[in-house]
Predict the structure.
Amino acid sequence: MNVNDTEVIFSILERAGYSRTEKMEEADLVIANTCSIRDNAEQRIWGRIEVFHQLRASRPGLIVGIVGCMAERLKDKLLDTHKVDLVVGPDAYRSLPRLLEAVRPDAPQIDVLLSRDETYADITPVRTDRNGISAFISIMRGCNNVCSYCVVPYTRGAERSRDAHSIVREACDVYQKGYKEVTLLGQNVDSYLWKSEIETVTFANLLERVAAIAPDLRVRFATSHPKDISDEVIYTMAAHPNICKHIHLPVQSGSSRMLALMRRKYDREWYLERVAKIREVMPDCGLTTDVIAGFCTETEQDHADTVSLMDQVGFDWAFMFAYSDRPGTLANRTMQDDVPANVKNRRLSEIIDLQNRKSLERYRAQIGKELEVLVEGPSKRDPGMLCGRASNNMMCVFPAAGRSKGSYTTVKVVDCTSATLICE
Ligand code: 5AD
Ligand code: SF4
């Protein structure tokens, strides 16, 4: 999502006459696009700002800007203590050129207003990916859920869905430019809903429209919310061969007690039922998740419930985090961050170890299968080999043998690690 925001910012700045440099030492303007989701993401940015200041010492006049969630959350600290020139929140990127005109050494500029309707629908992002095969398209912004641990609704504001026609146009445009895969992005794609005077478009309708652009344009999406993923979406995925069979379905915890405290609005049984439905309709669907270890009041039993859920579901992959108390969230205001750091970290290592074993099992189960992959380019580890993802999102490496980037090829899985399928 942040990468896509950066692409929107490049587009706005290019229109205003700025051009991009790969070398930071040459820049007249450096901007860090920031994330506030966990404390360590913010800590890294404070370090980056120091680097920018050192650069400014040897390059007077250099403008230092901070945009994104931290801008929204920490505007005063950024301006007063860290002396940046520009602070712009996630809904105010259109004001960047105007603010940049006004920046002076003694007059930093700021706009962190959140909007009810900004979706940057008319802005064609400048693609920053290097492979030219896979593009991200933002379909909505903000979030209306109030998961008690999460800062996103405060930093990115209320949920709004982008005009469906502008999304389809953007997908057509990237396809015409040679891209073969689009990933539709939103905090909670299942609640996408766009209405005009003559039509109402749900997420399932949108998936269908994007899938109809071309049979060789793959469609992916993230992130799904377990409380909202509907049978309609599952059946739509199943009905279209070019909608990739992969769902990122963050569970956060396997304990219904924790899920209630997290305000996730589903329980363990509901989650397991959704997984069962997905697997009934699409037995080969890839399934990945996010898990938080050590949320407020988490007991050993709650943790054991998470372990047993992960064991039972067998995710292909998971992003796992120690709970990080975020100022302003419901948990921060009403609960105690009472699981000691060493306990959080032990639980986190336990689930990481389990997931590594599960990933290996899931990847091993692919050995012998034939999978269609979209060739992305040379493998990072072995430039003599190519790499590309299968529909289920597993990364495959295979011999080049004359295949070109952006083409589809069928490979046979012969071996694996816990994160890569080795194919012929
Ligand atoms: N602490 C730890 N992890 C968090 N996430 C969101 N907020 C927090 C937090 N305060 C994780 C969730 C979410 C992912 C994007 O980040 O697992 O799904
Ligand atoms: Fe945060 Fe919950 Fe919204 Fe995801 S759904 S962005 S975890 S509030």
